[in-house]
Design brief:
It is a single chain. The chain has an eight-stranded mixed beta sheet with strand order 7-5-6-4-1-2-3-8, with helices on both faces. The protein has 318 residues and is of the alpha/beta class. The protein has helices at residues 20-34, 54-64, 79-89, 109-118, 134-150, 168-176, 184-191, 214-226, 231-261, 268-300; strands at 6-14, 39-47, 68-73, 94-97, 122-127, 160-167, 195-200, 308-311. The structure holds uridine-5'-diphosphate and magnesium ion. Magnesium ion is lined by residues 99, 101, 103, 205, 210.
Length: 318
């Protein structure tokens, strides 16, 4: 019996990666050639509104290699949305998301596929050690602890990123989640399915520079918390409660002092500091509510998460 080969989609979000792409393609296409006996391959590039020659390179690759397909987004939407566009257009029985800069080694892919064949639905790459500053590393660790703690059902592994193999079932699940303020790392855990790690060493970028500015990272961090947890909203009630209790105790102290010792109460400094403290806290609480409200506003419009310029035709020879 001649069973049909399974198809593997490599999903590559690319934003201004003209320097890295040729190297990336060389490495990956060699791997695909080596494993072509066992699998069919699809190299699906998502051009995330690049302003350099990225799209031209991708189009050339698609013209010369039938395994290459692309989705050309109408502008830069960010990696999270670019991945969604990829999931929507991937044909494979499983999808492997991988960065275009070769920081995530394609050499780990065979191990991932082996785990998939064993029956795991979500094989995530786990960084063995990180080539990052101590600052970024610590902040990321604290953040993931915090987020895991805040969002009951979502367990996040700090060392796992977007380099992972997802079974078709996982991909279809992720596609059902159409929220625009995406934090995919949380979504992997949200959808469930059997998971297992594959270790890899993160490398330096082969070319170009990191596309994550501090501002974008902050946004992503906020999206992570606000779309997976309502703990910040509760913060206001907790602090409100604590402040009321303290205020009550303070009131008793002031009363007792005035009644039994006849202490003149020093009014001005206490009042000013209390007003400032409470005023500051109320503004903070309002801000938090505003953040959530903003997200509700954006989601209720039900805008499509992205628009595309063009998608390469599906090759239906299989
Ligand atoms: N990326 C993207 N859109 C963006 C930013 C990044 O598609 O707005 C892609 C980028 O081309 C790369 C991957 O996401 O393939 C990871 O980006 P980068 O290497 O800059 O992130 P880092 O490795 O520094 O976290
Ligand atoms: Mg990178």
């Amino acid at each position: 019996m001649n069973r049909k080969k399974k198809k593997i989609t490599l999903l590559i979000p690319a934003y201004n990666e003209q320097e890295a792409l040729p190297l990336f393609y060389d490495t990956v296409s060699r791997l695909a050639d080596e494993m072509s006996v066992s699998y069919d391959w699809e190299l699906l590039f998502v051009n995330d509104g690049s302003s350099d020659g990225t799209m031209n390179i991708i189009r050339d690759l698609a013209a010369s290699d039938s395994r290459v397909r692309y989705v050309d987004l109408s502008r830069n939407y960010g990696k999270e949305t670019a991945m969604l566009a990829g999931f929507d257009n991937a044909d494979g029985d499983c999808v492997i998301t991988i960065d275009a800069d070769l920081q995530e080694p394609p050499s780990a892919i065979p191990a991932m596929l082996a785990k998939w064949e064993e029956g795991f639905k979500d094989v995530y790459g786990r960084r063995r050690h990180r080539d990052q500053g101590i600052m970024k590393k610590t902040m990321s660790r604290v953040y993931h602890k915090l987020l895991s703690g805040m969002s009951g059902d979502v367990r996040l592994t700090d060392d796992a990123g977007d380099f992972r193999l997802l079974d078709r079932q996982c991909v279809d699940a992720l596609r059902k989640i159409r929220e625009t303020q995406r934090y995919t790392k949380g979504l992997y855990d949200l959808i469930g399915f059997s998971k297992t790690p594959v270790e890899y060493d993160i490398a330096r970028r082969v070319a170009g520079t990191s596309k994550w500015s501090a501002r974008k990272l902050m946004h992503l961090a906020a999206d992570g918390i606000m779309s997976h947890s309502v703990v910040p909203l509760r913060l206001a009630s907790y602090v409100g409660l604590i402040v009321s209790v303290i205020a009550f105790i303070y009131l008793i102290i002031v009363l007792v002092k005035a009644l039994f010792w006849g202490d003149a109460v020093a009014g001005y400094p206490t009042i000013v500091s209390l007003i400032l403290f409470l005023g500051g806290f109320i503004l903070l609480a309002l801000g938090i509510i505003g953040e959530y409200l903003g997200r509700i506003f954006l989601e209720t419009k039900r805008r499509p998460p992205y628009f595309v310029n063009s998608v390469s035709p599906r090759n239906n020879e299989n």
